[in-house]
Amino acid sequence: GRYGEFGGRFVPETLMSPLAEIEQAHKEAMQDPAFLEEYHHLLNEYSGRPTTVTLAGNVTEKLGGAKIYLKREDLNHTGAHKINNAIGQALLAKRMGKTKIIAETGAGQHGVATATVAAKFGMECKVFMGEEDVRRQQLNVFRMQLLGAEVIPVTSGNKTLKDATNEAMRYWVQHCEDHFYIIGSVVGPHPYPYIVREFQRVIGDEAKEQFQKIEGTLPTKVMACVGGGSNAIGMFAAFLKEKVDLVAVEAAGMGVDTDMHAATITKGTKGVLHGSLTYLLQDEFGQITEPYSISAGLDYPGIGPEHAHLASTGRVKYESVTDQEALVALELLAKEEGILAAIESAHALSSAFEHAKQMASHESILICLSGRGDKDVHTLMSHFKEEAKHEDTIQAATTK
Amino acid sequence: GRYGEFGGRFVPETLMSPLAEIEQAHKEAMQDPAFLEEYHHLLNEYSGRPTTVTLAGNVTEKLGGAKIYLKREDLNHTGAHKINNAIGQALLAKRMGKTKIIAETGAGQHGVATATVAAKFGMECKVFMGEEDVRRQQLNVFRMQLLGAEVIPVTSGNKTLKDATNEAMRYWVQHCEDHFYIIGSVVGPHPYPYIVREFQRVIGDEAKEQFQKIEGTLPTKVMACVGGGSNAIGMFAAFLKEKVDLVAVEAAGMGVDTDMHAATITKGTKGVLHGSLTYLLQDEFGQITEPYSISAGLDYPGIGPEHAHLASTGRVKYESVTDQEALVALELLAKEEGILAAIESAHALSSAFEHAKQMASHESILICLSGRGDKDVHTLMSHFKEEAKHEDTIQAATTK
Amino acid sequence: MKTLFKQPLQNKLFIPFITAGDPDGNATIDLAVALQEAGASAIELGIPYSDPVADGPVIQKASSRALKNGMNIVKAMKLVPEMRKKGVNIPIILFTYYNPVLQLEQESFFALLRENTIDGLLIPDIPFEESAELRQKCQEHSISFISLVAPTSSSRIKMIAENAEGFVYCVSSLGVTGVRKNFDNSITSFLDEVKQYSNVPVVVGFGVSSKEQVEELSSICDGVVVGSALVREIERLQTSLLNETTRNKAIDEFREFAKTFGSENESKEYV
Amino acid sequence: MKTLFKQPLQNKLFIPFITAGDPDGNATIDLAVALQEAGASAIELGIPYSDPVADGPVIQKASSRALKNGMNIVKAMKLVPEMRKKGVNIPIILFTYYNPVLQLEQESFFALLRENTIDGLLIPDIPFEESAELRQKCQEHSISFISLVAPTSSSRIKMIAENAEGFVYCVSSLGVTGVRKNFDNSITSFLDEVKQYSNVPVVVGFGVSSKEQVEELSSICDGVVVGSALVREIERLQTSLLNETTRNKAIDEFREFAKTFGSENESKEYV
């Protein structure tokens, strides 16, 4: 259960046996052709995989460097890569005879994916969500309810994702005998980081084959955004042993030199959160600090333990991108390619665009476009309105 | 340019030559392998086609009749079948050397699809949208703007789709020399109904092949919703000559016996609107009346002329479904299958579910799920809230 | 073939457009009288329509006003005999979109045109190719079926102009009706081509808004249609026109405004 | 191996839990004194933590209150010598999540435990398998490393119980800390299995909230941990506890409340 020194299983004793059972069940499942067939059947016939790889031709031309390709996880059912894992874990729950599902969610993407598979499998579903996020993401709350899930507002702590995760774990501790906890990223106690990785590696496996078919070679760089880090791990898994540069991009929020960011690798220190040893944003006494990012999906104070390991070995390079930089990249992709990326994914785009400029035209970058930006339109609207207001103020001030 | 007695080209003289040029260009394009290759390349690599066919197993079991399959147009880039046509027409515009695009939109789906392809092709894009719709669909307005399109609020008439179409035509009349008008459905003057049909027939062509691969035979019935009717024509085209029942479903709004509906075939009379002879909702003096449906995409007083023809020959059966029935079907699909359908598509679902109950379990229905329901969440929320309030009122009234 | 105007023309034609029922039916009758007094060669009487795609905002609003007042194609036609009673003897051309026509039985539509002494029919959304049957019927009933021709018509100009009746209505530039400041220079060659094929007067419309423009166009065509400029004046006067005590004064104002477009020679003969 | 309690036990153990710094450090000291007076056999001193996943809402809120007051793991440990000065001589067990421990150099953490006369260490989110090094260090420094065992531990019960030090902390039912009305019937067989392997007292915690429950459990185990019930009382008294003029009265009230859980025999000897 370790990635170098990272990972592990730091949980209340009550969960130790349930986690061992899940580990065993997953191991057996992954060797059972019938399980794998059902998993891939659902990915293909239900979620619409394989997702395509799109050349961002206009952006490539504009930047004048490396060719930019996008792995289109935004085209999945429910709009992001989250469904790959939710399908896999729901199948695992079914295999283990569990008919009740719990999940945590921040902006609601993993919650919607979990509510979706719970509906598909006829399972009862409870989604824990910080009260503050419930307020901010009413549409996703309603989507989950429409799918038949119960959304439980969490009032502890800062009432956001970290607290929702705490509460989901508490509920699971009390109900682990008949509930399966579908964790949404490569975080949590072992075996979750491994399970989620294995259910997300389809992204990279597909992308590698597709890219080779198009270009006849491997990409020069592969990039993805990281919050917990599931889309990045899923993308990188296929390339870890290849001669390909891997770059993951964290959320720098208002800047890594402020205290308003979510750049866990860049600025974090080692610690234990939600069951595993990894890098965290915390104070000197080990109290977890509240992260910040405009992107709800990257707004998490920890990171998957495998990322902590990949950072420490140097196999993957970790960079960070501010809110503002991500928004500029999002707008560029929208205007040039007609693709509205999730703000999460826009962090990877921003960094990739900078890399591309420095690279030669025979080189290439393959970016994981982890989700679509429809969910972010409210955020973008208020941001661009604020910006316009700000510009008006500046203009008013300078023309007087 | 006729489907039986329907269709034609009833437009101001100014547009006659431009329409003839488009007809000629389209004819040549469809015989040019390079054009078709680029079209299908974009459908596959950009929009993510082929879209999958999903068995709605839980609903099938629940209804106890025919097997229900869904053609998943909701998985397209931008969330509906509209992009198929937008890509095709934008390629045609490019071929004709036009660099400026105009489009009309109601709820914004075709507007978003058009703004998307305009961005992809580096074309200037103006989207005409009724002022009332601009107000109701702010998120889609913002999406179009983010994609670089100019959204022009239309203040004439009732300020909805019909008026936006009028205004788009007026603008085109004045600027047809350098503008290409991308019409969003199988309506308008010849050759538009034909062009849009040919760019949407990929739905049925794919679905037929996919269904045969799954079931080894053709479906018993093929169903789709109709407003203008592009997803239905696209779906039916492949089956018109097969021994397959075809059923199209119109919006009955508050009921076809009220004056609040959009059931053009069921309740309309022959007339000319937006350039073609078809069935219309109008008064005895030929004034077009305002249609009503909870679904913005079906809220149109006319219907594609080919549908008028298929109705008159009896090859396609036209039914209608109320707002309420559509919502019940939408909720059922969400809760049973984890798929949130567009309210438009839910009309087809509702009718299909009724058919399924009357059919044998060896029979099957293939439904075109034309789009995803994310765009409708606001509408659904306020509807279900109203409903809950209404129930509360009833309860309060009956418990006193 | 019936001709609307005596040939050769003694003056340039001035063909005003007004919407039936704007602001009400009685006003429309009086406005028609005023237009004749202002030198109109003929009047285009517009049938208000819910979806006037060939019209700009001014006439769209006039349509809305008229529809709100309950105007319809049958009522509109019945205004013409009232105009005749008040002395209007110039040709009246019914301007209507195709759909209202389509909703009437064809025989009763032509009967209505005849019994209401209507001289011509202009349908802006029915192109030459779709009009064969209607043109045939018009000939049978001695109604001039007016054809439009546009700068984009190109190879169609010959076909349309050769078959034109009453007059050829040339769209001044690309576009819908409405007030314009300038005309495209290419209009001269366009009009020359139309004149080359036409046996009837060649008239320019869509966007004629001032005396200066009328004069500018006079040298290259046989007359002008003036719509939006007049309808805007009616819009301005609508309150006065609806009030019996102020109507006469408003009509006087309108007549004076219309005269700026009219020929100086006010006495004409009509066929 | 160090033992926390003299064996064989003369009375059932009553181990109260309070959060350090709730409502402030001084109150914590006085509350500890009161607990000893109420018959506590040892005290679990909880370190407030931002993410207490093993705690129910009552202790979560206590954690938040203490963190707001600036409490941290080092300050908390330094409260213990103050308690000793006021006569507290029962064992003090530091209850802390793993992360705050991890942020201290291991040597300085154990030095702090020693110099602040802390007797035991309980980390709810470190399972047996991850605790080898810490248990080793505890033995070196004569600190009892308390292990938890749960009804779901099944095959793990033997391993945990055999290696237990100080006492075995049995989770009463599935779950996190908090007040419960009823206990699962299966608790008897669970406790029997633990007792079969354990050489130290077997104590039940998580959800003990009334004298009746204490009595019910007394027949099947060696003692109880009472947490949320006491912390809820502190929450109720917080304003009085923070005010110097009312603190003593509040402490009296708290002592009386705590006595409902305590053993009747108030004089004990501790090793």
Automatic annotation (TrEMBL), chains C, D:
User: What are its E.C. numbers?
Assistant: 4.2.1.20
Taxonomic lineage of this organism?
Answer: Bacteria, Bacillati, Bacillota, Bacilli, Bacillales
* Catalysed conversion reaction: (1S,2R)-1-C-(indol-3-yl)glycerol 3-phosphate + L-serine = D-glyceraldehyde 3-phosphate + L-tryptophan + H2O
Q: What is this protein called?
A: Tryptophan synthase alpha chain
The record's GO molecular-function terms, alphabetically, read: tryptophan synthase activity
* The organism of origin for this protein: Metabacillus elymi
Q: How does it associate, per the subunit comment?
A: Tetramer of two alpha and two beta chains.
Q: Which UniProt keywords apply?
A: Amino-acid biosynthesis, Aromatic amino acid biosynthesis, Lyase, Tryptophan biosynthesis
User: Mind telling me which NCBIfam families this protein's record contains?
Assistant: trpA
- Which branch of life, at top level? Bacteria
* Recorded metabolic or biological pathway in which this protein acts: Amino-acid biosynthesis; L-tryptophan biosynthesis; L-tryptophan from chorismate: step 5/5
Function, in words? The alpha subunit is responsible for the aldol cleavage of indoleglycerol phosphate to indole and glyceraldehyde 3-phosphate.
- List the PROSITE patterns: TRP_SYNTHASE_ALPHA (PS00167)
| List of catalytic residues | E44 (proton acceptor), D55 (proton acceptor)
Q: Does the UniProt entry include the keyword Disulfide bond?
A: no
What InterPro entries does this protein's entry cite?
A: Aldolase_TIM, RibuloseP-bd_barrel, Trp_synthase_alpha_AS, Trp_synthase_suA
